[in-house]
Design brief:
Number of domains: 2
Distance between the termini: 56 Å
Strand order of the largest sheet: 3-4-2-5-6-1-7
Largest sheet: 7 strands, parallel
CATH topology of the largest domain: Rossmann fold
Radius of gyration: 22 Å
Low-confidence stretches: 378-396
CATH class of the largest domain: Alpha Beta
Helix content: 25-40%
Strand content: 15-25%
Shape: globular
CATH superfamily of the largest domain: P-loop containing nucleotide triphosphate hydrolases
Length: 396
């Protein structure tokens, strides 16, 4: 039985959803789609992977009129999420022209596409660039979506988002979707939304399926332990989290040197490289993805069995987003934390903010010291966690 038929949507949209293989709405879809297609403002508290893109995509498809100019604008924090949202909306309709706008790629093709698009999915910085150039017209926007709103504000886009909102017509539908509804989100909604309805579907990870553990390890053996675990544990796809781009690159090189099929993704890579990396990882051509928190939110990545935290994040919410990448859709998952002396402050913060988490201390196995890649420049550099890169060879 196709439960989407209970919503008051067009036959063509119903058929598109059916063709995508969806028969039962997720919680966020069940609680929001009807109000969205009716034009109401919505604040949706919803984790990555909960189905919110389909929910607001239905509203866009139902309300945007072909060949009438730009009418729907979706703001996202990252390039990858912009592409992902664009592709989902394209899957829902063959009638509308949809384009994604973000930095890191040539701007001229975007200028061309903006001339005919009815739906634009954009990161705030590049959209403002187009606004300043006069290459985008927001006067007809009737649906404005902030996707991963909390992440966008955490990344420092509040002023940019405000400028964009003020450039849209006041008479519009506004949808905020966010993994957490904090003070900044509430203040933004109070300023820019009309009697919004709040819906919530935050529990996407099954706590009965997720096991959380930690190892206490000397800092000069942390990567040796990581390589040992990756080489000896049964696993599907694995995500390894670091706090900085430099750490991400160094961990990836170290794992490769020691026979682990790993690849890196972070904000310093070109868009083409980031897209290629995600495609290879989702296709299981690479089994280990080493990443910064850019990959913890918004990206459509499935079949992740293990999460490893080489660095623990300073913000406990980021820890939740990381571990939320596994134990999905009834599958089991494990989150592994590698703790040395400089991780314990962040670890205590996570335990204080989420006392319900049962994070078990596990006895460290006997581990051999692994090979460490040569450092081209031995001049000491400071980094958040790997404090002196000139000491890498001695420490790992």
């Amino acid at each position: 039985m196709n439960e989407f038929k209970e919503f008051n949507m067009s036959d063509s949209l119903q058929l598109a959803i059916q063709d995508l293989g969806f028969t039962k709405p997720t919680q966020i879809q069940a609680e929001s789609i009807q109000d969205i297609v009716q034009g109401k403002d919505i604040i949706g508290e919803s984790a990555t992977g909960s189905g919110k893109t389909l929910a607001f995509g239905c509203g866009i498809v139902e309300q945007v009129i072909p060949k009438q100019g730009l009418q729907a604008l979706v703001l996202t924090p990252t390039r990858e999420l912009a592409e992902q949202v664009k592709d989902m909306i394209k899957d829902l309709t063959k009638e509308l022209r949809i384009t994604a706008v973000y930095g890191g790629v040539a701007i001229n093709p975007q200028i061309h596409d903006l001339n005919w698009a009815e739906v634009v999915v954009a990161t705030p910085g590049r959209l403002l660039d187009h606004m300043q150039r006069g290459t985008v017209d927001l006067k007809k926007v009737k649906i404005l979506v902030l996707d991963e709103a909390d992440r966008m504000l955490d990344m420092g886009f509040l002023d940019d988002v405000e400028r964009i909102i003020h450039s849209c017509p006041r008479d519009r539908q506004t949808l905020f979707f966010s993994a957490t509804i904090d003070r900044k989100i509430k203040e933004l909604s109070n300023k820019h939304m009309i009697n919004p309805r709040k819906v919530s579907a935050v529990k996407m990870v099954d706590p009965t399926k997720l096991k959380q553990v930690y190892y206490n390890v000397d800092k000069n053996m942390k990567l040796s332990l990581l390589a040992h675990l990756l080489q000896n544990e049964e696993k599907d796809l694995v995500m390894v989290f670091c706090n900085t781009r430099r750490n991400t690159e160094f961990v990836t090189k170290t794992l490769k040197l020691n026979g682990v099929n790993a690849t890196a993704i972070h904000g310093g890579l070109s868009q083409n490289k980031r897209t290629e990396t995600i495609t290879r990882f989702n296709g299981a051509k690479t089994s280990v993805l080493v990443c910064t928190d850019v990959a913890a939110r918004g990206l459509d990545i499935g079949n992740v069995s293990h999460i490893y935290n080489v660095d623990l994040p300073k913000d406990a919410k980021d820890y939740v987003h990381r571990i939320g990448r596994t134990a999905r859709a009834g599958e089991e998952g494990i989150a592994v934390n590698l703790l040395c002396d400089y991780d314990h402050d962040n670890f205590r913060r996570i335990q204080q903010e989420y006392p319900e988490f049962d994070i078990e201390c596990v006895e460290r196995p006997n581990v051999k010291r692994i090979n460490i890649p040569a450092i081209k420049n031995n001049r000491p550099r400071r980094d958040n966690n790997f404090r002196n890169r000139g000491n890498f060879r001695r420490r790992y």
